[in-house]
Design a protein that fits this description.
Elements lengths: L3 E4 L5 H12 L5 E2 L11 H11 L2 E6 L7 H13 L2 E5 L18 E2 L12 H19 L9 E2 L5 E2 L4 H18 L4 E2 H8 L5 H17 L8 E2 L22 H21 L1
Helix pairs in contact: 1-5, 5-7
């Protein structure tokens, strides 16, 4: 059982990742569909168990998500359990809110969902803390955060992995840079995450790129350049149709329009 279950529409995966990163910074375990699934899990059964057992259900509301039946169902479950925390990530009209949620207050992050240091985030953290406190009083638990279980493989179950946390934080950092039309170096990102440049760093950038490809959005790691070459790392090039060993001139020619796609996309979102 996770502390938080995030309900969202798949086209808004990047916003969901930002909310996940912000909550994990508070030491909370967060269930976000694909990240929370283990090999062999039945997708619908796992979601059903998690939304009915999580300490809080954070619903990310937008015109898109409020039209998705699955999001409405998950939020309704959270409401009936008394643990729903609605969060507006994009502006919507009152008429777009389903009748069952008509009188429920929501937290407005529409202007700052990609800026984890914005003061509006404190409203979400306070609401989560209150909701988890109520859960603990009901269950007579001695701790706010449930203990993680260790499976037969020795891997912690029910808590986010270190890589998942770092990927979420790297995504939030790069989105903020993209919205300002800025590029960064590998050193900038590694220093911000507080990890050395090495295999772990390269692995998390590759995972971030894979998630962007799955979500159908421009690959954010195209903004990250090696200090020595001024070009993205080897993992990036297959995502944009080039071999890692392609000539540097060819890479630079490809990179310019790809970065414009990143800037344009995040300038609109």
């Amino acid at each position: 059982m996770a502390d938080i279950f995030i309900s969202y529409a798949r086209p808004e995966r990047t916003e969901a990742e930002c909310v996940k990163a912000a909550l994990e910074r508070e030491g909370l375990s967060v269930f976000l569909d694909i990240d929370g699934l283990d090999g062999g899990d039945d997708f619908s059964s796992k979601l059903d168990r998690e939304v009915k057992s999580a300490g809080a259900v954070v619903g990310l509301w937008s015109p898109t998500s409020l039209s998705h039946q699955w999001v409405k169902t998950e939020c309704d479950i959270g409401k009936r359990r008394g643990v729903l925390i609605p969060v507006a990530i994009k502006t919507f009209k009152d008429i777009e809110v389903p009748a069952i949620f008509w009188n429920i207050h929501f937290i407005d992050l529409t202007a700052c969902v990609h800026d984890l240091n914005h003061p509006n985030w404190q409203a979400l953290h306070r609401s989560v803390a209150r909701t988890l406190d109520r859960r603990d009083e009901t269950s007579q638990s001695q701790a706010v955060q449930p203990r993680a279980r260790t499976g037969n493989s020795g891997v912690t179950v029910g808590a986010p992995t270190r890589q998942q946390k770092l990927v979420s934080e790297a995504r939030a950092f790069l989105i903020a840079k993209a919205r300002r039309r800025e590029t960064v170096t590998t050193v900038d990102v590694a220093n911000w995450l507080g990890i050395p440049y090495g295999d772990e760093f390269k692995g998390l950038l590759n995972k971030l790129a894979l998630e962007d490809q799955l979500a159908g959005v421009p690959i954010l790691t195209g903004l990250v350049s090696a200090v020595t070459t001024g070009l993205p790392l080897a993992h990036y090039w297959p995502f944009v149709g080039l071999a890692p060993g392609a000539p540097d001139d060819e890479k630079r020619e490809k990179l310019a329009p790809e970065r414009e796609r990143i800037f344009a996309y995040w300038g609109r979102h």
